[in-house]
């Protein structure tokens, strides 16, 4: 039987993922302050609850990946829409610290099973080695999640309060995301194509830990740390580098369009290059931008915003395409859970650790993220040589 139309699947998943990211991962940026004020907590405590959610996602990620391999991404995504809705309703009812932490634990379970990894697993089961274009298309559409989510969340919070905002987003999951996922073609019965090579799997077709897996997990963890640190501290970091507040805001606004532009480039001109080549290009952009900012000051700020945004956008695609290129579609969901676990932990710790570095070193803290970017480049070069020898 011919595989279903990629265009319809990509549009469906892209729209649903935009809403899912906007209503979960990007929620604290707009709601943390009013939530903390209403609950009588310090704002960092709300971000700590978000970090707990990412930690939960890291712990359950491999199990969720196994469930995707068994039941299909469509079923997991549909169930997660209900979980997201229930957790957001609970978040809107919290009265103190413990109920806040519990609600974010529920959202953490949803983050593990309802964002990019599940969407990527769905298209890999449907299209096998031909899923790269679909993965790129999904990330291209969902790249507007913050562009859509932040203004909507801010507007709802101003007019209705943070609790009602959580409940509205819960309704979005039930009224829009759930029907979108249920409209997808079933991927449970789609035969998984045989892997290009049996290397990296055991007899039960479960991924095993090897050098390639370790190097790829390192790359994803380092890039996750950089992305999370910049998302949390970019305005303060730029001002610590001597950038005026107005220019810092402009730099921040450039990052979203740069991400989308880089994904468009990946979708068109770069789609014929191996994902490993594109990943090396993506990882080098943040260190180059950081060096320009630190060496040139304000003239390098705009270049930093564009380069960091572009690299981050391309690395999001690499999270889906690199495991597919290196290991094939067999056991894809489980492997994604293994690979993304360290990245979730790094993302959870980045706001705090980079905040400490920023307080101690001011703008020179940017060398820390640049060094992690270069570590990713080195890991990918080692991976390329290992693949060439293999």
From TrEMBL:
<keyword id="KW-0812">Transmembrane</keyword>
<feature type="domain" description="Major facilitator superfamily (MFS) profile">
    <location>
        <begin position="9"/>
        <end position="388"/>
    </location>
</feature>
<dbReference type="Pfam" id="PF07690">
    <property type="entry name" value="MFS_1"/>
</dbReference>
<keyword id="KW-1133">Transmembrane helix</keyword>
<feature type="transmembrane region" description="Helical">
    <location>
        <begin position="215"/>
        <end position="237"/>
    </location>
</feature>
<feature type="transmembrane region" description="Helical">
    <location>
        <begin position="365"/>
        <end position="383"/>
    </location>
</feature>
<feature type="transmembrane region" description="Helical">
    <location>
        <begin position="277"/>
        <end position="297"/>
    </location>
</feature>
<feature type="transmembrane region" description="Helical">
    <location>
        <begin position="167"/>
        <end position="184"/>
    </location>
</feature>
<dbReference type="GO" id="GO:0005886">
    <property type="term" value="C:plasma membrane"/>
</dbReference>
<keyword id="KW-0472">Membrane</keyword>
<keyword id="KW-1003">Cell membrane</keyword>
<feature type="transmembrane region" description="Helical">
    <location>
        <begin position="134"/>
        <end position="155"/>
    </location>
</feature>
<protein>
    <submittedName>
        <fullName>Membrane protein</fullName>
    </submittedName>
</protein>
<feature type="transmembrane region" description="Helical">
    <location>
        <begin position="76"/>
        <end position="95"/>
    </location>
</feature>
<dbReference type="GO" id="GO:0022857">
    <property type="term" value="F:transmembrane transporter activity"/>
</dbReference>
<dbReference type="InterPro" id="IPR011701">
    <property type="entry name" value="MFS"/>
</dbReference>
<dbReference type="InterPro" id="IPR050189">
    <property type="entry name" value="MFS_Efflux_Transporters"/>
</dbReference>
<feature type="transmembrane region" description="Helical">
    <location>
        <begin position="101"/>
        <end position="127"/>
    </location>
</feature>
<feature type="transmembrane region" description="Helical">
    <location>
        <begin position="243"/>
        <end position="265"/>
    </location>
</feature>
<dbReference type="InterPro" id="IPR020846">
    <property type="entry name" value="MFS_dom"/>
</dbReference>
<feature type="transmembrane region" description="Helical">
    <location>
        <begin position="46"/>
        <end position="64"/>
    </location>
</feature>
<dbReference type="InterPro" id="IPR036259">
    <property type="entry name" value="MFS_trans_sf"/>
</dbReference>
């Amino acid at each position: 039987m011919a595989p279903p139309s990629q265009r319809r699947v990509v549009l469906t998943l892209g729209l649903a993922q935009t809403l899912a990211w906007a209503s979960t991962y990007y929620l604290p940026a707009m709601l943390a302050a009013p939530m903390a004020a209403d609950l009588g907590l310090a704002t960092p405590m709300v971000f700590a609850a978000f970090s707990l959610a990412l930690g939960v996602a890291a712990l359950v990620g491999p199990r969720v990946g196994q469930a995707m391999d068994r039941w299909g991404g469509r079923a997991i995504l549909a169930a997660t829409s209900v979980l997201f809705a229930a957790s957001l309703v609970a978040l809107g009812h919290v009265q103190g610290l413990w109920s806040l932490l519990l609600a974010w634990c529920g959202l953490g379970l949803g983050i593990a099973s309802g964002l990019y990894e599940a969407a990527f697993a769905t298209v890999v089961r449907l299209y096998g080695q031909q899923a790269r274009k679909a993965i790129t298309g999904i990330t291209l559409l969902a790249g507007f999640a913050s562009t859509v989510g932040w203004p909507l969340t801010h507007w709802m919070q101003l007019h209705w309060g943070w609790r009602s905002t959580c409940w509205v987003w819960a309704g979005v999951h039930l009224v829009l995301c759930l029907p979108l996922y249920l409209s997808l073609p079933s991927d449970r019965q789609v035969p998984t194509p045989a892997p290009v090579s049996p290397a990296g799997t055991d007899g039960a077709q479960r991924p095993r830990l090897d050098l390639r897996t370790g190097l790829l997990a390192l790359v994803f963890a380092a890039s996750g740390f950089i992305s999370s640190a910049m998302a949390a501290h970019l305005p303060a970091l730029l001002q610590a580098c001597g950038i005026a507040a107005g220019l810092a805001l402009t730099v921040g606004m450039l990052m979203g369009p740069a991400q989308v532009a880089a994904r468009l480039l990946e979708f068109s001109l770069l789609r014929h290059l191996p994902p490993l080549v594109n990943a090396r290009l993506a990882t080098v952009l943040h260190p180059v931008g950081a060096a320009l900012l630190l060496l040139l000051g304000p003239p390098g700020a705009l270049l930093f915003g564009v380069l960091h945004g572009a690299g981050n956008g391309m690395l999001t695609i690499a999270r889906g395409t690199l495991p597919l290129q290196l290991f094939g579609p067999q056991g894809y969901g489980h492997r994604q859970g293994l690979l993304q676990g360290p990245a979730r932990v790094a993302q959870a710790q980045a706001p705090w650790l980079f905040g400490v570095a920023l307080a101690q070193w001011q703008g020179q803290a940017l060398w820390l993220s640049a060094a992690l970017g270069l570590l990713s480049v080195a890991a990918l070069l080692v991976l390329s040589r290992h693949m060439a020898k293999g």
